[in-house]
């Protein structure tokens, strides 16, 4: 995507990813420009009204009872942003900040916030110039908006604070000047409009749902490799058996496993009457049930995400009929819940993958393969410690699966007495998704070596294609070698989608 029109219509997952990760350009659509201009006229008409209007002629939060004189209203907006840009801790990733800015721009484009056109245009200009505000990890309670993260972005629009341009950290004023962007002097309502949104947690949800769609297909690939490598049966993945429990995700995962294992000589080698194994362990047999449940969780999360992408989050809002009304739509509960739900699913998919890996390394359970798949067990340790790394990650993922959204801490002198903690839920989900990619990479690394050790029997075309891609970066069985680079190379292949692409090229599209 070379350029994305931001308008009154909802953005898509693909558009958010294109801007956040791949620096696609943005522009305000003609419809957005009209909507912004029309709603600003409503705010301008109220600016001199002697009656108080929240965010226009009053203070904020617990200070909303104070009416602000017209001469102090520009100062009020500056003070709001400066005081709210109170983030601390590690710097947030560039892609997250860009997603946050894009989604705030999307809400501004709906015409429900009352900002001026030049203010919205400044956000588009910053995205296009690659000027990324420095945002910190702590400062959002996920209610009244992702306040501190959004305030750091608004501070940049004002020409204050610090930004990143490429690898350089610069004063915002210097970066804006170099990009030809004029700092904005905020006016009535604009400070609230730039900070009162759930854009940070929604941006992270959008990035992680995108990544999880790839990782769940990859999980089916890693499971298929393990099923094949451990001489397990694919009979349990039959469509009629899966239909007895008609969850859509389970059906899709089982269909993927059938496609990935089709025409496998390894599978065919133990289908005869001489095979005395009645059924396989749960980590093999129940892969579609676990992976499928995670898929259905992702489907639910995407439904919530799409509703949020179609939302206009601000307080107060300018209604379609020209009223300015307070509301509670900035509460992050809908997003926070699914962020936590996904973290649970991620932890369990990683957990079952680690169990499959452990079976491949144990000579008591791997059906004839050497201990830890080592070249010379005792002298060599093989993939013993790769499974340790998996286990450490899975243990961490279990902790990250503890919900953040059940923990509300009152703030703003009890005016904001129930908050969502959705930003925290999003931050831990990002770490969890990263961990899942690494766990699946280790399973693929181990299972492909097991397939090599099954020679001369050959794997299925799809799993063979996955192994071939891995062997371009990681050698096959042999004496112990420095293992960390092999794991890192496999993780890169997981994240790039090359394993999925190779499997689909050989065995057909995966669900």
Automatic annotation (TrEMBL):
Keyword set includes Hydrolase? no
Pathway in which this enzyme or protein is active = Amino-acid degradation; L-histidine degradation into L-glutamate; N-formimidoyl-L-glutamate from L-histidine: step 1/3
User: Source organism's superkingdom?
Assistant: Bacteria
PROSITE patterns xref list: PAL_HISTIDASE
Q: Does the keyword Lyase apply?
A: yes
What's a GO biological-process term for it? L-histidine catabolic process to glutamate and formate
Q: Which GO terms describe its cellular component?
A: cytoplasm
Catalytic activity entry:
L-histidine = trans-urocanate + NH4(+)
Q: Which Pfam families does UniProt cross-reference here?
A: Lyase_aromatic (PF00221)
Q: Where in the cell is it found?
A: Cytoplasm
Q: What is the E.C. number? A: 4.3.1.3
Q: Which GO terms describe its molecular function?
A: histidine ammonia-lyase activity
Keyword annotations for this protein, in alphabetical order, are: Histidine metabolism, Lyase
Q: Which PANTHER family match?
A: HISTIDINE AMMONIA-LYASE (PTHR10362)
**Which family does the similarity line name?**
Belongs to the PAL/histidase family.
What protein am I looking at? Histidine ammonia-lyase
What gene name is given for the protein in this entry? hutH
């Amino acid at each position: 995507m070379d350029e994305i029109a931001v308008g009154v219509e909802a953005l898509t997952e693909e558009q958010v990813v294109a801007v956040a990760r791949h620096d696609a350009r943005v522009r305000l659509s003609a419809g957005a420009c009209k909507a912004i201009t029309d709603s600003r006229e409503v705010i301008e008409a109220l600016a001199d009204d002697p009656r108080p209007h929240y965010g226009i002629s009053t203070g904020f939060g617990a200070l909303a009872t104070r009416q602000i004189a017209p001469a102090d209203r520009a100062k009020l907006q500056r003070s709001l942003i400066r005081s709210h840009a109170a983030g601390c801790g590690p710097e947030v990733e560039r892609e997250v900040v860009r997603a946050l800015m894009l989604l705030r721009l999307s809400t501004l484009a709906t015409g429900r916030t009352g900002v001026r056109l030049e203010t919205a245009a400044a956000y588009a200009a910053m995205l296009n110039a690659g000027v990324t505000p420095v945002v910190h990890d702590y400062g959002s309670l996920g209610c009244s908006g992702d306040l501190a993260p959004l305030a750091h972005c608004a501070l940049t629009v004002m020409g204050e604070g610090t930004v990143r341009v490429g690898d350089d950290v610069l004063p915002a004023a210097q970066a804006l000047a170099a990009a030809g962007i004029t700092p904005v002097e905020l006016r009535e309502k604009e400070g609230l409009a730039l900070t009162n949104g759930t854009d940070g947690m929604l941006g992270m949800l959008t990035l992680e749902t995108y990544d999880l769609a790839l990782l769940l297909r990859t999980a089916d690939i890693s499971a298929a490799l393990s099923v094949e490598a451990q001489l397990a049966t694919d009979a349990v993945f039959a469509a009629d058996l899966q239909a007895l429990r008609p969850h859509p995700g389970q059906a899709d995962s089982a269909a993927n496993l059938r496609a990935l294992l089709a025409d496998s000589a390894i599978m065919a080698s133990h289908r005869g009457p001489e095979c005395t194994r009645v059924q396989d362990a749960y980590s093999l047999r129940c892969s579609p049930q676990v992976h499928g449940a995670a898929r259905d969780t992702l489907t639910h999360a995407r439904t919530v995400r799409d509703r949020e992408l179609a939302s206009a989050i601000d307080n107060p809002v300018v209604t379609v009929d020209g009223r300015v009304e307070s509301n509670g739509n900035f509460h992050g509960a809908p997003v926070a819940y699914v962020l936590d739900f996904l973290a649970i699913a991620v932890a369990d998919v990683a957990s079952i993958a680690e169990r499959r890996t452990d079976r491949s390394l144990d000579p008591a359970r791997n059906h004839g393969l050497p201990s830890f798949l080592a070249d010379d067990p005792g002298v060599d340790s093989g993939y013993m410690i790769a499974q340790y790394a998996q286990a450490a990650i899975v243990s961490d993922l279990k902790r990250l699966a503890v919900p953040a959204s059940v923990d509300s801490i009152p703030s703003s002198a009890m005016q904001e007495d129930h908050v969502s903690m959705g930003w925290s839920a999003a931050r831990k989900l990002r770490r969890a998704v990263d961990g899942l990619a690494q766990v699946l990479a280790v399973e693929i690394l181990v299972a492909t070596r097991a397939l090599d050790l099954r020679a001369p029997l050959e794997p299925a075309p799809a799993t063979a294609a996955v192994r071939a891609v891995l062997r371009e970066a990681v050698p096959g069985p042999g004496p112990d070698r420095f293992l960390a680079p092999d794991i890192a190379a496999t993780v890169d292949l997981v994240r790039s989608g090359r394993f999925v692409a190779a499997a689909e090229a050989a065995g057909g599209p995966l669900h």
